[in-house]
Amino acid sequence: MAGRRARTGRGWDASPPRAGDATSPPRPRRGRRSRADDTDPETPAAPPRDEAEEAREICLRQLAVRPRTRAELAGALARRGISDEVSAQVLDRYDEVGIIDDAAFARAWVSSRHAGRGLARRALANELRRRGVDGEVASEALGELDEETEAETARALVERKLRTARGEPDAIFRRLVGMLARKGYPPGVAIRAVKDALAAQSAEAAEFAEQIDADALAEAEGELDRDTRPLD
C-alpha cells in the first residue's frame, strides 16, 4: 500500500521504496574467494620431478658458462640436493659421451691461463687441484709447458712491466721478482728474468744487475724450484 511504512528490527523504515525492490530477488552476499574455489578437483596433481632430469639440467647450465671438471659438477649437484647415486649416474654418462673430459679441461686450462695471465706451472697446478683435477691428469697437462717456454714468458712479463716501472733499480728488482713469484715462477727463473731485463734497460740498471748472483740469491730464497714439479 502506497505510503505505508515497513517495520524493521530497529523500528519503522520511512525511506521510499527503491526501484526494483518488489521484483528483484535479493543479491547473494559477496565474500572473499578462497584458493580452493579456483582448484578443479578433477585436475590431477603434477607428477614429482625426476631427479636425474633435474641433475642433467643443472649440469648443462653449469657447462653453458664454461667447461667444468667432474668434481666441479659433482659439487654443484650436491649443493642442489641431488643424491650421490643419481649424481654418479649422470656424471658417468657424461664421461662416456665426452661431455666431461678432465684431461681436455686441464690441457685447455694450462694453455689459456699461461698465455692469458702468464701463470707458471706451480700456480697452474694449484688451480687445477682446487678444481678437482686428478694429480696424474694435471701432471700430463703441465708437462706440455716446458721450462724454456716458462722462462720466455717470465722475461716477457718483466719487460712489459719495466716500460712503466719507476724507482731505484733495487726497488724495481724486488717488485718484479715478487710479481713473478705470485704467478708461480720459482726464484731461479724469476731472478734471472729480472736480472736480464734490467741489464738491457739502462746503464744504471745494468750496473745493478751485474752485482746480482742469481744462483746464490735463489739458494738463499730456499730453492723453491721443487714447488714447480707437477702434482703426483
Written description of the protein model:
- The longest helix has 16 residues, at 102-117.
- This protein is mainly α.
- Helix 1 crosses helix 3 (84-97), helix 4 (102-117) packs across helix 6 (135-142) and helix 7 (147-162) packs across helix 9.
- Helices cover 56% and strands 3% of the residues.
- It is elongated and about 90 Å long.
- Strands 1-2 form a two-stranded antiparallel sheet.
- The chain is built from 11 helices and 2 strands, in the order E-E-H-H-H-H-H-H-H-H-H-H-H.
Outline of the structure:
With 232 residues, the protein is an all-alpha fold. Helices cover 56% and strands 3% of the residues.
Index terms:
single chain; 232 residues; mainly alpha
Topology as a string of helices (H) and strands (E): EEHHHHHHHHHHH
Could you tell me the strand content as a percent range? under 5%
Low-confidence stretches: 8-12, 227-232
Look at the helices and sheets and give the structural class.
Answer: mainly alpha
Cross-sheet strand order for the largest sheet: 1-2
Quaternary structure annotation: single chain
What's the layout of helices and strands?
Elements: E1 6-8, E2 11-13, H1 51-65, H2 70-79, H3 84-97, H4 102-117, H5 121-130, H6 135-142, H7 147-162, H8 169-182, H9 187-199, H10 203-210, H11 214-220
Antiparallel strand pairs: 1-2
